[in-house]
Every structure is written in C-alpha cells, then in structure tokens.
Specification:
TIM Barrel; 10 strands
C-alpha cells in the first residue's frame, strides 16, 4: 500500500504513521515491524515514551531500507536548555541506533527556558546532521509565531492533539501561514471516536468504521495522523483511509462534534491553549 505524503518546507512526511505512545517491550517492536511490513513508512516515538530502543529494533526487523522510513522523535520538556537538549538528542539516536532522525521535535514548550535558546539548539541539531527536519509539538498560535521568527532553519511541523471532538482551527491556520504541516496525535480521541453515533452512521455509508471516518476527516483537511494501536488488525484498518472521501455535508456533521470539553490530553505542563 502506498501512503500519500504531506509536503512542508522541504519535508515529505507520510500522511499516516504509527504512534507508539504507551507501547512497550516486545509489543512495541512487533507493532513497528508489522506496520512497516504492511506499508507504513512513518513511525512516531519520543524520549519520554521510553521505547526508542524497541522502535529501532522494529525498524531493523522489518527489513525495509532505512531511507524508506520516516522516523520522528521528540525531546522532553525538562531537557530544553541548550546542553541538555543536545545530550538528549544524541541519547535518542543512540537508543534508536540511527545516525539521524527524519524529524526532531520539541515535545512540549517549557516557559522556564527561553524559547530562543531551545529553538537555537534545535536548529543546531539539524545543522549538525542529527535531524533531517525539525519542528515543534503542542505549540499554541503565539508560540508558533515566535518559534518561526527565531528559527534559522525551516520548521516543518507542529504536532498537536486533533480529532473530531476538538476544534483546532486557530492553530491549524497559524501553521498554514508558515507552511508547517500539522501532525494529529490521538486522532481517534483515545478510542472515543469508535463509539460515536455520528461517526458510525457516516462510516456505514462508506463501508468504513467510525475510527476510519475520524482519520479520514483529518487527512482530508491536510493533516498527518499517527494513531496508536497494539492490535495488528487495527494497523490495516488505520491505513485503509484513502479509498473513500467524505462529502461537504459529512465534514460539516463531524465538525459539529467539537466542544470546549473535547480535549483528552491536558496536564500541568500544558501551555494556555488557544
């Protein structure tokens, strides 16, 4: 299966990837291997996930050429000062057993560290060849604008929570202004989409599941989606979203599902959301 790519400031990012949050040990390795053998070419991990070693093992076990895979990792919020950021990046690569990642992200902003310092070292990681592309995650509109102004290398992505129950139009518009792609994590709202009546009914019209409708809703707006699963059968389901399209009425129906209480990922380290 060939997955379309999203182009952004020089990067070509596969529109569907495997999210690996909460995947551990042999399960993580097996899922990465199976996903790549099935046709996935984008794997998302992070320092904080504690599974970069297993992601690397899955990549090697899959037998695909390294250059055919797009590997994203993220540096944690506590390591955003220049020295810790550089050490964390090198540690990520050591665990993955890679010379470079395809995309290196700031996982969450940290107001205790000047953004100029973090963006500066992020850019240096690209210049040093440790990352082919760089970007941010969980950045609000003001933070996106500030990061782009500070960066001496192109930022290609803002990774955010996005699904039918959360209106992210302001952040998406800000990213578009700067040519950044949007990667949607928790694109099925950690399973909430699966039981939603509206999504189920739309899925029946197309012979698809509610989860597939949720993913299609996002990619049809230009997003990259990285659903996480620990079930092999879900891998095939989550990538089979390019053989149907939602019409304008269906998109409008889904858009009405968003609410101020729709966010599923929020914690004390979150920024003030738009």
């Amino acid at each position: 299966m060939t997955v379309p790519v999203v182009e952004a400031n020089g990067a070509r990012i596969p529109a569907v990837g495997l999210g690996t949050w909460d995947l551990r040990g042999a399960t993580c390795t097996r899922m990465v291997e199976a996903a790549l053998q099935l046709g996935y070419r984008h794997i998302d991990t992070a320092e904080m996930y504690g599974n970069e070693r297993e992601v690397g093992e899955g990549l090697r076990a899959s037998g695909i050429n390294r250059d055919d895979a797009f590997i994203t990792t993220k540096v944690w919020q506590d390591h955003l000062a220049a020295g810790p950021f550089e050490r964390a990046t090198k540690d990520c690569l050591t665990r993955l057993r890679l010379d470079a990642v395809d995309l290196l992200l700031i996982h969450w902003p940290n107001p205790r560290v000047p953004l100029a310092e973090t963006i500066g070292v992020l850019c240096r990681m690209k210049q040093a060849g440790l990352a082919r592309h760089i970007g941010v995650s969980n950045f609000t509109v003001p933070l996106i604008d500030e990061a782009v102004a500070l960066a001496t290398e192109p930022l290609v992505c803002n990774q955010i929570e996005w699904h039918p129950f959360l209106d992210q139009s302001k952040v998406v518009a800000a990213a578009c202004r700067h040519g950044l792609a949007i990667t949607a994590y928790s694109p099925i709202a950690r399973g909430r989409a699966v039981g939603n009546r509206v999504l189920q009914e739309i899925g029946l019209r197309h012979g698809k599941t509610a989860g597939q409708v949720s993913l299609r809703y996002l990619v049809q707006q230009g997003a990259i989606v990285i659903p996480r699963t620990s079930k092999r059968e879900r891998l095939a389901e989550n990538i089979a979203i390019f053989d149907f399209a939602l019409d304008a009425g269906e998109m409008a129906e889904i858009r009405k599902l968003a609410s101020p209480a729709g966010r599923v990922v929020d914690w004390s380290g979150s920024p003030t959301w738009d």
